[in-house]
Automatic annotation (TrEMBL):
Gene3D superfamilies: OmpA-like domain. Residues 325-440 form the OmpA-like domain. It is found in: Cell outer membrane. This is OmpA family protein. Keywords: Cell outer membrane, Membrane, Signal. Pfam families: OmpA. Its main location: membrane. The keyword Membrane applies. SUPFAM superfamilies: OmpA-like (SSF103088).
Length: 440
């Protein structure tokens, strides 16, 4: 009975938060393994450590995707670890039925690092220590690797305005050789440089000097999150602690973060779950104009812990779907996302499609044409076909998920032939990767 109890405890070691207990259990496990007195305990320990060591690997060792040119352009690819258990993969579209996030309609800043060299920090970014672009085995796209005791500032140079959205994908990386130490917090947020260069070195440590909103997530059971705001060296808001469902199960796997700011209102979702909706969480004295990402320090070494970040998008405005579609005759969105080189709709697109479907239900006689568009990256013919498939996928979802009459929906694919922005910039490419709804 004691052996069974001990094995059950040992299998939880990667997420243990009590240092003394963790070290004690680890020492006992080593002793048992050496004596070969308890084969079950030894097997459980090996299985746990093997899973942690193999879950995420540095992209420098991944030679399959570094310089690959896709057949069709990439629309904010989803990263999925190759060895992730099936039961822990992100939930499907229906799991996002309460996800009401709708991104802004004009892209201000976008970053997927596709144009950056592996092994280097992007030229437009700044770091208090180090950071580098990597690919991850079994995961699509390029990611910037962030380290503990280190702050990263993005390459954004645009003011965000009063109403805007921020999205990004982030992996909390944890690959310990020994466990028992406290896992460090991951922090991110928005700040104002008040007319100064928002990439200046001093903002690596003084991002809260003028005006900021910051989110802190502490790995503990489900994950604990809090929000605080600061203005002129004084804290103006501090939230309660809330749980982040699924955070610990997503260690070494991507989570999608979505933030919406409407003047003073601050809302944030992690995957499909809204964890904060704060009416007066943002100070409006200064316009926020920069993103920061930070991991606190720990007793783990840099090769054991850190984070990966990609698919950053800041978009301005509050889309008025009904006015644009019904009165102006066309609604365009960059918020419907698809898997890499695929017509599979990503779950975080649910809020946008739901919004459009609601307008059509309110106006049952209206017919629309759904038109898919891509950037100019990749092969022209492949992009033309992909845009047609993606438009058809949106139509199919609106029929099956929201009950829209199929006779009121047409589809078309334009590929990269009708750009609305410059395909030479990341922001322009993100704006061109869109789905349009045209009133017939």
């Amino acid at each position: 009975m004691k052996k069974i109890f001990f094995a059950a405890i040992l299998m939880t070691l990667p997420f243990a938060m009590q240092a003394q207990l963790g070290k004690s259990l680890l020492n006992k496990a080593k002793s048992k393994a050496q004596q070969r007195a308890d084969a079950k305990v030894d097997q459980a320990m090996d299985k746990t450590l093997d899973a942690a060591e193999n879950s995420v690997k540095k992209g420098k060792n991944n030679t399959n995707t570094n310089d690959a040119v896709p057949a069709a352009e990439d629309n904010n690819t989803t990263a999925t670890a190759s060895d992730a258990p099936k039961e822990e993969k992100p939930a499907g579209i229906k799991a996002y039925s309460k996800f009401d996030f709708v991104p802004g309609d004009k892209v201000l800043y976008a970053e997927d690092f596709n144009q950056d060299a592996i092994g280097e920090l992007p030229l437009t970014w700044n770091s208090s220590g180090k950071g580098e672009i990597m690919t991850i085995e079994g995961v699509t796209g390029k990611w910037v690797r962030g380290y503990q005791n280190n702050t990263l500032l993005s390459g954004n140079k645009s003011k965000f305005g009063d109403n805007y959205t921020v999205e990004f994908d982030l992996i909390y990386y944890f690959n310990p050789k020994e466990t028992g130490y406290v896992m460090p917090n991951i922090e991110f947020g928005l700040f104002s440089s008040r007319g100064e260069d928002n990439g200046d070195n001093r903002f690596l440590r003084e991002y809260d000097d003028y005006n900021d909103v910051e989110v802190k997530i502490h790995p503990n059971r489900e994950g604990i999150a809090s929000v605080e705001s600061n203005l002129d060296h004084a804290r103006t808001f501090g939230s309660d602690n809330v749980e982040v469902p699924g955070f610990m199960k997503a260690i070494n796997k991507p989570l999608h973060y979505a933030i919406q700011v409407q003047k003073t209102r601050f809302r944030i979702w992690v995957n499909e779950t809204k964890i904060f909706d704060i009416p007066r969480g943002v100070n409006t004295k200064d316009t926020l104009n920069q993103l920061f990402f930070k991991m606190e320090g720990s007793n783990y070494k840099d090769d054991e812990i850190g984070y990966y970040l990609t698919n950053i998008k800041v978009a301005t405005g509050v889309p008025d779907t009904r006015h644009k579609l019904i009165e102006e005759g066309k609604f365009s969105t960059t918020g419907i996302l698809f898997d890499f080189q695929s017509a599979t709709i990503k779950p975080e697109s649910y809020g946008v499609i739901k919004d459009i479907a609601s307008v059509l239900k309110e106006n049952p006689t209206v017919k629309v044409k759904i038109v898919g568009h891509t950037s100019s990256d990749g092969d022209l013919n492949a992009n033309m076909e992909l845009s047609k498939q993606r438009a058809a996928a949106v139509k199919d979802m609106m029929i099956k998920e929201f009950g829209i009459d199929a006779a009121h929906l047409e589809t078309e694919g334009k590929g990269p032939t009708q750009p609305v922005a410059d395909n030479k910039t990341a922001e322009g490419k993100a704006q061109n990767r869109r789905v349009e709804f045209i009133k017939l």
